[in-house]
Amino acid sequence: MDQSLIFENAHLYVEKEASEIPWLKIFTKEPYKELGDVPKELRLQLFEVFDIIEDEMKKYYNPTKINMASFANMLPRVHLHVMARFENDSYFPNPMWGEKLRDAVLELPDEKEFYKRVAIALKQFSPG
Amino acid sequence: MDQSLIFENAHLYVEKEASEIPWLKIFTKEPYKELGDVPKELRLQLFEVFDIIEDEMKKYYNPTKINMASFANMLPRVHLHVMARFENDSYFPNPMWGEKLRDAVLELPDEKEFYKRVAIALKQFSPG
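Above: the input entities. Below: the structure tokens describing the complete assembly.
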């Protein structure tokens, strides 16, 4: 079993990124180059899944800020990054792709419990 | 008149970022900290405006990739970045916040014409 997989339904899946911060990535199963290439209904579902993950991140981690991004420059396949940022993380206030500012050691609650909550919330949204 | 303002309606406005690449920023007039704090209808409008800008960027510049991001870590006020990326721009394939890889001199079509097209497309979407 792929340890990075947090959730999947017929059209989407959610993976975790290995990082000091809580960081999830939402992929469509069918690959698309740009967000505008994703069929409208699936694009709305993608942003619904983002909303749910953002909400769970806020409730569980109480982060300084949520960050969202869609780049896929190396491999042009649309996916959304969702990141919980903390004022004492290694890059804040820079984006996670920016200059590292310090060697942070974050003390965060158990990530396994967070992934469980995300999976439950996404299953309620999308039982299929 | 603010030279960076490309479009506004009752709820949103679009500004250009000074950059070597085509780069626009979409703000809600009412400030919100996180995307999930933006009322649902306005959040959908925000992503509609993103879709329209992405589409105009693709048609006018034929970029290698479109990038989108929402950070607002310095000043926690939601806005969406929309960037047209080129394989020979100064940072590609890194995000624009990442490590600079070369000193690019891009030869792009007239940006004034692009802003005009964006404004026309957004007015058609949102005549109000």
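Note for the figure: Chain A has a mean pLDDT of 95.
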